[in-house]
Amino acid sequence: MRRPRDKAKVETGVLVVERWICAALRHRTFFTLAELNAAIWELLERLNARRFRKLPTSRRALFETLDRPALRPLTATRYVFAEWKRAGVNIDYHVAVDGHYYSVPYQLVQQEVEVRLSATVVEILHKGQRVASHVRSYHRGGFTTEPAHRPKAHQAYLAWTPSRLVHWAETIGVATAQLVAAILASRPHPEQGYRSCLGLLRLGKQYPPARLEAACARALAIRATSYKSVQSILRIGLDQQPMPPAAPMPAHGIVHANVRGAAYYTGKEPSDVTRPNG
Fold first, then answer.
1. How far is 199 from 206, CA to CA, in rounded Å?
2. Residue 50 in contact with residue 24, Cβ under 8 Å?
3. Is the pLDDT confidence value at 3 over 80?
4. Pairing relation of β-strands 83-88 and 94-97?
């Protein structure tokens, strides 16, 4: 069993500071931290210059001859406190760190990584190698994504923007533009909407614009706002069939002896409504 050899010497040094500094200041009142530090520094200089009882030297002299020559210069950058955590890479190639999602190379999907978390930077390491570095974000639920981390198929979407997709759809027709806008508005992540919209673009190369516009109009009518729905409509040929007529709304309310109607609740009941006997 090991025992500390210098513990007594350290405790003796603490006792000396308590006697020569703390005790000397115990009856004084300080109103600022700077004033207190100045008083401590003055007594500390006296203590370091005071000669030992059994040695012909002082603490200051020993520091200058023994410690100072062995000291190394301070590092160019200050020490940065950081926390280390482990995290799993989700199928969307992001890791969750304190409620925010940071991207890593998509090849690490379903792998475990280490996260070095400082106040300003998030570093992600895999098997000791740093694979990603992001500026730390405190926005819970947000995403920080490096474009190079996306798969090649996802990187192709970056050339498109919502406005460019809608502009392309307007060249086909009003219904196509409305469907593209509905798809983009319904997806929680932009890339999910881009995939469906680019699918419509591919359909525009396979089918004439009139057929695609008719298919989008039918999809809007049945509230099937998705690429697969339009693809199915075109494949089956429903876009070439007449649109089913909408069910007509009754022009007037139902007239029946047991139906009171709105006039009953206003106190102005029509005289021509027949009440049931009894």
1. 11
2. no
3. no
4. unpaired
Domain ranges for the chain: 11-69, 83-150, 156-240
Lookup result for tokens 């006792």 = 15
Distances (CA, A) of 139 to 98, 120, 135: 9, 13, 12
- Asked whether the CA dihedral 35, 36, 41, 43 is positive or negative, the reply is positive
pLDDT, tens only, 200-249: 888 988 999 999 999 999 999 888 888 889 999 999 998 888 876 654 55
Structure token pair of residue 9: 């010497």
Residue 270 has phi, psi (to 5 degrees) of: -60, 145
Q: What is the pLDDT of residues 129-181, one digit of tens each?
A: 999 999 999 988 888 889 888 777 666 666 667 777 888 889 899 999 999 88
The string over 110-134, giving b where at least 16 C-beta atoms fall within 10 Å of a residue's C-beta and e elsewhere, is eeebbbbbeeeebbbbbeeeebbeb
Paired residues of 125 in beta bridges: 114, 130
Confirm if 50 and 36 have CB atoms less than 8 A apart.
no
Per-residue tokens: 32? 């600022």
